[in-house]
Amino acid sequence: MGIRRVTSGMRPTGSMHLGNLHGALDNWVRLQNDYDCFFFIVDWHALTTPGGGDAVGYENVGRLRENVVEMAIDWVAAGLDPGKCAIFIQSHVKEVAELHLLFSMITPLGWLERNPTYKEMVLGYKIEHPSYGLLGYPTLQAADILAYKGEFVPVGKDQEAHVNMTRDLAQRFNSLFGRDVFPITEVLLTEIPKVPGIDAADKKMSKSSGNYIALAHDEAATAERVRIMFTDPVKIRKNDKGHPDGCVVYAFHGFYNKAEQPLVRGECEAGLRGCVDCKKRLAERMNEALRPIRERRRDLAAHPGRIRDILIDGAGKARDAARATLDEVRDAMNLPPKDGI
Ligand code: SF4
After folding, report:
1. Domain assignment of residue 211, yes or no
2. What is the C-alpha separation between 296 and 74, in angstroms, rounded?
3. Same domain, 106 and 248
4. What does the pLDDT average to over 321-337?
5. Is residue 131 located within the same domain as residue 17?
6. How far apart are CA 199 and CA 209, in angstroms?
7. Is 340 contained in some domain?
8. What is the distance in A from the centroid of ligand 1 to the CA of 201?
9. Which residue CA neighbors atom 1 of ligand 1 most closely?
10. Residues 26, 114 within the same domain
């Protein structure tokens, strides 16, 4: 068996934060060494919700292109290597739209209406008039994966169900048309570290909450965000005994200062460490660790042609794979071939 294919996409939310870096990108960077990876920015998916404020959506497309470029820069700066994986924009592969249309013919409406993510999005984004595109989101997601015959999708434990509709559609297509055109995609379960927001240890870092540190932040901005991080509220003075569990600064020492984390705990609990010094040390370690990524990101931002070429090359590779799949799909469905009748 050849090298197995992994597919995964991200909505273009613009420049990425440390939650995205440790929650997804670090894993992708590892996967590109062992799998044939297709990573794409899902600009069509961004249009399934209205958007508003900083969030792109069909009522708020002003930053869509910029967000796509920012995200691609961050991916490459964080270590995705276009020599090892295909990096591209969803809408650059029109075959995905064709497959989505064909899948929509065989997707039972009940599957979509019962989809819990649809209900969560309608409630979460307070969408009064959900669009056809939002309801059909899982069908487009299936097309994104299956156009490239994605065998694996890397997900965290809580997202396992997201791939179910893709598996169901692959099975339904193969059985309706009597051919095993599609693989039955499996999840590649990943231990996804929970990166807290700077405002509370039990909140996730997210763009929409504003509690993030971006890869695009400079060292001074990072230090400032560390300075306002939530700590143990009962530890006021250096010699007060602290409780590191529940302190965001302590959690980040785990990401950026692993070797010293036991020392941080010991000194905090014994009242031998002040929060101001603790934060200064963390900011130093974070800035050291993020410096190479930030240097690469500055360099890429200064040479936009490089990112454009990476995205064009990636789309070319993706299109070749998708075209081959669509030829099989059309044949299985007895549609006239594209070059005649
Ligand atoms: S000393 Fe460090 S670990 Fe302890 S509460 Fe303050 S910031 Fe948190």
Report:
1. no
2. 9
3. no
4. 96
5. yes
6. 9
7. no
8. 12
9. 275
10. yes
Closest CA to 150 of 311, 338, 3: 3
pLDDT in tens, 222-255: 999 999 999 999 999 999 999 999 999 999 999 9
- Residue range of the domain that includes 229: 217-299
Query: Residue 9: what are its φ and ψ, rounded to 5°?
Result: -130, 165
Q: Give how many domains the chain has, as a whole number.
A: 2
CA distance 341 to 330: 12
Q: What is the pLDDT of residue 1?
A: 60
Q: Using CA atoms, how far apart are residues 110 and 304, in angstroms rounded to an integer? A: 45
Q: What is the largest CA-CA distance in the chain?
A: 83
Whether residues 247 and 235 share a domain: the answer is yes
**Cβ–Cβ < 8 Å for 38, 28:** no
What's the pLDDT band for 167 if we cut at 50, 70, 90?
very high
User: Mean pLDDT of all residues in the chain?
Assistant: 94
| Ligand 1 in reach of 247 Cβ (< 6 A) | yes
Are 171 and 184 spatial neighbours (Cβ–Cβ below 8 Å)?
A: yes
* Spacing, Cα 246 to ligand 1 middle (Å): 10
Res. 55 pLDDT band, cuts 50 70 90: confident
Q: Is 231 in the pocket of ligand 1 (CB under 6 A)?
A: yes
What are the tokens at 201? 């240890």
